[in-house]
Specification:
Elements lengths: L5 H8 L5 H28 L4 H18 L7 E2 L5 H32 L3 H4 L4 H24 L10 H11 L5 H20 L5 H16 L7 H5 L16 H6 L1 H26 L5 H17 L6 E2 L1 H9 L6 H16 L9 H16 L1 H10 L2 H16 L2 H23 L1 E5 L1 H7 L11 E7 L4 H12 L7 E8 L5 H16 L3 E5 L3 H10 L1 H5 L4 E2 L2 H8 L1
Parallel strand pairs: 4-5, 5-6, 6-7
Antiparallel strand pairs: 1-2, 3-4
Helix pairs in contact: 2-3, 2-9, 2-14, 2-15, 2-16, 3-13, 3-15, 4-12, 4-13, 6-7, 6-16, 6-17, 6-18, 6-19, 8-9, 8-16, 12-13, 12-14, 17-18, 18-19, 19-21, 21-22
C-alpha cells in the first residue's frame, strides 16, 4: 500500500502535512475548489453530460488522484482536453456508454502505470501535442457558440464542417438577452483575469450572470434549471450502468482514446507542476493514480478526468505543497453540492459558454502554434498542421496516431542521416588510432561507423561499401562509436560479411561496444566471423596482423 500512495506518503515523510503547512494547503484547496466549480459544470455540459456530473467527477477524481497519484500538487478533474472526445462518445453511446468507457479507460491507465509506460508517453513530440490541443480548443469554441448565441441548431451532424454550417444558418436568430449575458460574462472573465488576484474571474462572471438572471428573469435565456432541471443536493448512488459484454466490446476504442489523452494530459500537467513547484513527480505512479480516479469517477456518477493544468497552476500559486490541497478542493465541492445546489438552477448557459471560450483560447495557445508554424523545420510544421486538421475534421485518436507515426518516421530519417560511414586513410589512422610503430596489413580498408545502426541506417553502409572501387584483402569495421544495433542492422552486417567473404575478403570488427557485441553474439555473427575477427582496438589488430 505504501507504493500505491506514494505522493501522499512522500509528502508526509517530508513533513508537508504538518501544522506549519496546514493553512497554506487548506487555503490553496479552497481557492482551487472555487475555480473548479464553474469549470466542472461547463466541461460537463460541453461533453454532453449533466452539470452535476462534472462536479461529481471533480470530487471523486480530485480526491483519488491526490491520494494515489505521483504528483504532490496535481489537481485532477474534468478538462477541456476531453470535451471533443466525450461529446462524441455521449452522442453515440449515451451517458451510460460514457460511464462504461471511462471505467475501461481507468483500467487501461492503471495497466499503463503498472507496466511502467509513464516515461514512454512523455516523449510524444511537441508538434503533435500543440496540434491536437489547438484542434480541441477550436472544437470547444464552435461547440459552445449555440449556447452563447442562444440559438437552436438542427441537423448539425457530428462532423465539424456540418456543425459550422448549421451554426452559420442559425446565427441570424441569435437571442439578444443571451448574447448580452454571454458578452458581459466574457468581458468579466478576460478583464478579471488581468485585474483580480485572489478571486477567480470565472466565478465572478458566473455569480454576476446568475444574479442578473435571478433578478430580471430574462425571457428565453437558457439556464441549468431550464435545460437540466437544476442540480441535486446529494451525491448519486454508487454503481456502473453496465449493460452486457457487447457494450464493453463496442467501447474499447473510445476507452483507449480517453486513456491515451488522459495519460498525455496528466503527465504534461505534472511536468509543468514540477517546474513551478520545484518537485519531481513519479510518472508511472501518476498513471496509476489517474487510473484509479477514472475507475471510481463513473461509479459515483462522474466521467473521464485527468490532470488539469490551469487548476494545478492555481493550486501552486496559492501555496499548495502537498496532496492535502487536492483533498480540501474535493471536500469543498461536496459542501457546495449539499448546501448551494439550488442556486445553480439560475446559471445561464451563455455564461458557462463564455468561460469555455477563454479555456478554448488558452488551450489553443495561438502564439505558440503560430511561432511553431513559422519557425519550426518543415517536417515538424507538416506534422503540426496534419495533427491539427485531423483533430478537427476526424477524431483525436486518428490525429495523435498519425502525428506520432509521422514524427517517428521523420525522427528515423534524421537519425539515419546522422549515421556516417567513412573510409579512413592510413595517414589519418597513424595519428588518430595510435598505431605507432605498427602498420596495417597490405590491402586493408578501414571504415568507421558513427551513430546508431538501425534499419533506416543499414542501407547507408551497404551502399557505401557497394560503391567501393576495390575488393580489399581485409575489411576492418570500427564500431566503437556505434551505441546500439537493431536486428535489421545485424542482418545488414551478416549480408556484408557473406558478400565480402564470398570474394575472398576477410572482415574484421574493432572496438565493438559490449552492448553491440552481445547482440552480434546472440545472432551468431561473431561465431561466423571466427575467433580472430574481433579486436579491442585498431592498434591491437595492426600489432597482431601487421
Amino acid at each position: 500500500m505504501r507504493r500505491s500512495m506514494i505522493a501522499f506518503l512522500e509528502a508526509r515523510r517530508a513533513g508537508l502535512l504538518g501544522r506549519e503547512h496546514l493553512v497554506s494547503n487548506v487555503l490553496a484547496g479552497l481557492t482551487v475548489g472555487v475555480v473548479a466549480l464553474p469549470l466542472a459544470m461547463a466541461f460537463a455540459i460541453a461533453s454532453g453530460a449533466r452539470p452535476e456530473q462534472g462536479i461529481y467527477t471533480a470530487i471523486v477524481a480530485g480526491l483519488a488522484a491526490s491520494l494515489f497519484g505521483g504528483s504532490r500538487v496535481q489537481i485532477s478533474g474534468p478538462t477541456g482536453a476531453f470535451v471533443a472526445v466525450l461529446a462524441t462518445i455521449t452522442a453515440e453511446h449515451g451517458l451510460n456508454g460514457l460511464a462504461v468507457a471511462t471505467f475501461l479507460a481507468g483500467l487501461m491507465l492503471l495497466a499503463m502505470g503498472l507496466a511502467r509506460m509513464g516515461a514512454v508517453l512523455k516523449y510524444i513530440p511537441d508538434p503533435v501535442v500543440v496540434g491536437f490541443t489547438s484542434g480541441i480548443g477550436l472544437i470547444i469554441f464552435v461547440g459552445q457558440l449555440k449556447y452563447f448565441l442562444g440559438v437552436t441548431v438542427t441537423g448539425a451532424g457530428t462532423h465539424f464542417h456540418q456543425q459550422v454550417g448549421a451554426l452559420l444558418a442559425a446565427a441570424p436568430g441569435a437571442h439578444p438577452a443571451t448574447v448580452a449575458i454571454g458578452l458581459g460574462s466574457l468581458l468579466v472573465v478576460v478583464a478579471g483575469t488581468r485585474v483580480l488576484r485572489r478571486i477567480p474571474a470565472p466565478l465572478v462572471a458566473l455569480v454576476l450572470a446568475t444574479a442578473a438572471e435571478r433578478v430580471f428573469r430574462f425571457d428565453g435565456v437558457a439556464t441549468i434549471g431550464t435545460l437540466f432541471g437544476g442540480i441535486p443536493r446529494q451525491m448519486p448512488p454508487v454503481g456502473l450502468p453496465l449493460e452486457d459484454f457487447t457494450q464493453v466490446v463496442r467501447l474499447i476504442g473510445p476507452a483507449f482514446t480517453i486513456a491515451l489523452l488522459g495519460a498525455i494530459e496528466s503527465l504534461l500537467s505534472a511536468t509543468i507542476a514540477d517546474g513551478m513547484a520545484n518537485t519531481r513527480h513519479d510518472s508511472n505512479q501518476e498513471l496509476i493514480g489517474q487510473g484509479i480516479a477514472n475507475i471510481l469517477a463513473p461509479l459515483c456518477g462522474g466521467f473521464a478526468a485527468t490532470g488539469a493544468i490551469a487548476r494545478t497552476a492555481t493550486n501552486i500559486r496559492n501555496g499548495a505543497t502537498s496532496p492535502l490541497a487536492g483533498i480540501v478542493h474535493s471536500v469543498f465541492l461536496v459542501i457546495v453540492i449539499l448546501m448551494l445546489a439550488p442556486l445553480a438552477a439560475d446559471v445561464p448557459l451563455a455564461a458557462l459558454a463564455a468561460i469555455l471560450f477563454v479555456v478554448a483560447w488558452n488551450m489553443s495557445d495561438v502564439a505558440r502554434f503560430w511561432k511553431m508554424a513559422r519557425t519550426a523545420p518543415r517536417p515538424d510544421v507538416a506534422i503540426l498542421l496534419i495533427t491539427f486538421l485531423l483533430t478537427v475534421f476526424t477524431d483525436l485518436v486518428v490525429a495523435v496516431n498519425t502525428g506520432v507515426m509521422l514524427a517517428s518516421l521523420v525522427f528515423m530519417r534524421r537519425m539515419a542521416q546522422a549515421v556516417s560511414v567513412e573510409a579512413q586513410s592510413a595517414e589519418f589512422l597513424s595519428v588518430e588510432a595510435g598505431l605507432g610503430q605498427w602498420r596495417l596489413p597490405p590491402g586493408t580498408l578501414v571504415y568507421q561507423i558513427d551513430g546508431p545502426f538501425f534499419f533506416a541506417a543499414a542501407e547507408k553502409l551497404d551502399a557505401t561499401l557497394r560503391h567501393s572501387q576495390s575488393r580489399p584483402a581485409t575489411l576492418v569495421l570500427r564500431l566503437g562509436r556505434m551505441p546500439f544495433i537493431d536486428s535489421t542492422g545485424v542482418a545488414a552486417l551478416e549480408k556484408i560479411v557473406a558478400d565480402f567473404s564470398r570474394h575472398g575478403t576477410r572482415v574484421v570488427l574493432c572496438e565493438v561496444t559490449p552492448n553491440v557485441e552481445a547482440k552480434l553474439g546472440r545472432a551468431g555473427l561473431l561465431a561466423q566471423l571466427g575467433a580472430d575477427a574481433t579486436y579491442p582496438s585498431l592498434a591491437d589488430f595492426a600489432r597482431r596482423n601487421g
